[in-house]
Design a protein that fits this description.
CATH class of the domain at 68-214 in chain A: Mainly Alpha
Shape of chain A: elongated
CATH architecture of the domain at 68-214 in chain A: Orthogonal Bundle
Order of helices and strands of chain A: HHHHHHHHHHHH
Radius of gyration of chain A: 21 Å
Oligomer: homodimer
CATH superfamily of the domain at 68-214 in chain A: Tetracycline Repressor, domain 2
Number of strands of chain A: 0
CATH topology of the domain at 68-214 in chain A: Tetracycline Repressor, domain 2
Distance between the termini of chain A: 48 Å
Largest interface: A-B, 60 and 60 residues
Chain lengths: ~230, ~230
DNA sequence: TGTACATCAGTGAACGCGCGTTCACTGATGTAC
DNA sequence: TGTACATCAGTGAACGCGCGTTCACTGATGTAC
């Protein structure tokens, strides 16, 4: 079983795509042992190579972690972008899809999400490389999608009522991140409130948008137009 | 200097209050090296005792970390409770104070906050003790303050328009936590948006409350009633 | 007030462990002729 | 098509290190008489 799994030398060289396999191993370990209970040696073991092998692909432990963050931001940005889809068909429906995509990423890649956003505490904790990843173009792109969405929503407002774009984008990000961060670690919070993260986010966003003055249709339209 | 600092044998015994000193040392180290770059040996060194000394006060490393979380929740709850002050003088002003207290705690005790809420990733990461702390009475009490505040705000709504209390409490918590979590680690986010966490939280909450239907006064009252 | 004893906080030396990283190496792959 | 060589991914043994934890101990404090 184990050996057959290692038999598919997918690519050209010895192991194949060790780099990707190591990143995947790191994510798995981080899910199990937390973002900093991760060890390079264990990742190598999980990938079925010697403890020295990772050094062919990453300068050191920190570089691997940084790549987990960087590549995570890339998939994150791509996913948010696809969900937003330029606000098609409508800004509102696209916005909902965006929120769901945000939570889906955090749920499906909790290890990536944790390394990307919960680096521990402050900056100067030796993981400068990760901090660099958080300032990478990919991270920028992800935030830009949120900002685009905020812009599209604000465009529905008369010009003199529009709050600063960045502020609205931050509100959106803040709420999404708060829910992702609190709910993804299944423990305490999920036990307190019998609601899915998606329900909390969507209801919160509806209230927020109503407060913003977006949301032309009256909430409760669905009950007004019939049950199914 | 160092020695004079160690001279004030505050209490009765040998060292004095080693337990508290160790917790403080742990918080300091966590601020510097991240929530899991913390080591029991280093904490002992910082407290000026032998590496075996901590075992007189904590079963093991994990127990110390759990106590950082537990005592953190206690101060957190006390602080939120004091700020909310039973909704006096008005629910709205008390609510603002509550939000500021939330952010103040995260800013002043980033290590505690990180251990309390950013335990890494999922539950089963060996830190069951910390997870237990998150379910402690103190943690419960903190959440209850938020729920009280949510209740007081909702009471201003006609009964048939009130969303579920727990949902509103979650929205509030979610936004506060999102901002605390994103802003407290000074790096990436603070650079993107030139706003203080307090400004983001307060503006976000105002929009949310407006959407809820609370907020009788029109926003912008301050500009209407003069400048100073 | 004084002595004998129990308690208990902190010592310091020691342990085994897994980690990050290095090194000279090996053997497969790709390339030039 | 075949040979010679450079490249490069992975090996395996070794290193020094700091950690968590244990142990028998010491010496100060509190308590009973």
């Amino acid at each position: 079983m184990k050996t057959s799994g290692r038999r598919w030398h997918r690519r050209s060289y010895h192991h194949g795509n060790l780099k990707e396999v190591l990143l995947e191993a790191a994510r798995t370990l981080i899910e199990q042992h937390g973002a900093f209970g991760f060890s390079l040696a264990e990742a190598a073991r999980l990938a079925g190579v010697s403890p020295a092998a990772p050094y062919r692909h990453f300068r050191d432990r920190d570089a691997l972690l940084a790549e987990v963050a960087r590549s995570g931001f890339e998939r994150f940005a791509a996913r948010l972008d696809a969900a937003w889809n330029n606000g098609i068909p409508t800004p509102l429906s696209a916005f909902e899809a965006l929120g769901r995509a945000y939570l889906a990423f955090a749920r499906e890649e909790p290890a990536s999400y944790a390394v990307m956003f919960e680096t521990g505490v402050s900056e100067a904790q030796g993981t400068e490389a990760i901090q660099a990843a958080a300032a990478s173009p990919a991270a920028e792109k992800a935030f830009n999608v949120l900002q685009q969405a905020a812009a599209a929503l604000c465009r529905q407002l008369p010009e003199n009522e529009r709050p600063p774009l960045k502020l609205v984008a931050m509100h959106i990000w803040t709420m999404s991140h708060g829910i992702a961060s609190l709910f993804i670690q299944e423990g305490s919070v999920a036990r307190k409130v019998p609601l899915s993260p998606e329900e909390v986010l969507e209801s919160g966003m509806l209230i927020y948008l109503k407060g913003l003055g977006v949301l032309p249709e009256v909430p409760g339209e669905e009950t007004a137009s019939g049950e199914s």
